[in-house]
Amino acid sequence: MQRHECVVILDFGGQYTQLIARRVRENHVYSQVVHYTQPISVIEELKPKGIILSGGPASVLEEGAPRVDEKLFTLGVPVLGICYGMQLMAYMLGGKVEPAAQREYGRIPVNMLSSSALLSSVAGESQCWMSHTYQVKQLPDGFVSGARSKNCANAEMENTAKALYGVQFHPEVTHTEKGGTILKTFLSDICGCAGDWSMAAYAESAVEAICNEVGDGTVLLGLSGGVDSSVAAALIYKAIGDRLTCVFVDHGFLRKGEADEVREVFTKTFPVRLIAADASDFFLSHLEGVSDPETKRKSIGRDFIEVFKKEALKLGKLDHFAQGTIYPDVIESGSVAGSSVIKSHHNVGGLPKELGFTSLIEPLRMLFKDEVRALGEELGLPSSLVWRQPFPGPGLAIRIIGDITRDKLTIVRDSDAILREEIAAAGLDRSINQYFTVLTGIRSVGVMGDERTYDYTVAIRAVTTDDFMTADWARIPYDLLAKISARIVNEVGHINRVCLDITTKPPASIEWE
Ligand code: XMP
Hints:
18 strands; about 25% strand
């Protein structure tokens, strides 16, 4: 679906692969990550202007180490191997890779030669990020070395005639002082990329691709109220207007004001055909007395499918099914190229088959979260929606410890709204990645006025994280905490105690259930 110039990043399992993809896009060049096990035809079909081989944890000398089809080096497309990628290129083209006498890790001074096509613009010594135990000891025929460090004679290698390049260091990491310039040289000067990719361009080509795929057909999309499905809806709406039908299942566990905002945006700014099903009674009825977290999740998942399916069936046959899968979901589900796995926490697994859709449309499949947000802004979605923090599918139901009642939902929703309001007012809403309140199962004794109270304890959970796999607890200023606590006990009924969760992940998780 991309008609923009594209650079393929072949992934060997390196920890910086996504970062390479980002850096390429920062140069306004569209990038696509492809797992090394994919057949070379997948790469050829993308008609890349350049190929980058990522780093990876393996050693090329190991049996079963990742390899590529040799044809990759004869496609006539410039290739840049990074760390493992360089070693693999050297090894496969007849060079020698050996364990380094001294392992290099961290910031290492590297001397770049002015004779190097890749490095001449950064000639001289600069700091580079290294992380390797093996190195290229003997270059393949036709290659010359363009950089050296104290312990690595071939910190760079190149064969300009064949447009093959390798660097032992990591140009994508900010610790490599001149890394940005080196990648820019590769993309602009060596691959000849014009750098005309932008969010506006992406939106334009994505709209065109959706039009081509859908033809004069119809599309169904499940709106969750989150960023991804909202951006996908806005984009598809741009392409096919009211031939897009969105089903928004309100399970009753959304945050304060969110259901209304979704209804407002998708009836006014993007007037799709919106089916908003208020199913809160239905969901709640199955949760009476349920306190086990997984049972709650399963019940909500089951009900979600049921309600969604019921609404979808009422609509008659629609041709395509769309969802807001984004790149990290693709990675998570282990399906990098061309597969159509439905991510499980979308709660709609299994639906498309049953409802007889002809195809699955995922216009955000190649974007990172912040790029999805940029696209949302580009399309004109309100920033309150675009910058919405992540929110679990089961919603507030897993932020009430123990069984769920309407009263408890009100407590957690109202205390959460106060927390969000104060964090935003303090300007911390973009630096704290996720923050919410939890209604703990604890009741404790307090005094209010002259009265003894025996009421609930609310916990504040606020974390900073890059990937939500690990997280630190956010250092919210004491004065702000004092204000939040006072407002919660004063404004929300049945709360007489507020606690702060100061646990990292691991060992705790971000959510309490
Ligand atoms: P944990 O609690 O596992 O959360 O540290 C990591 C991130 O995942 C979100 N989360 C969920 N998202 N369905 C979802 O769609 C779920 O059941 C679920 N549980 C946790 C959580 O909010 C955090 O961002």
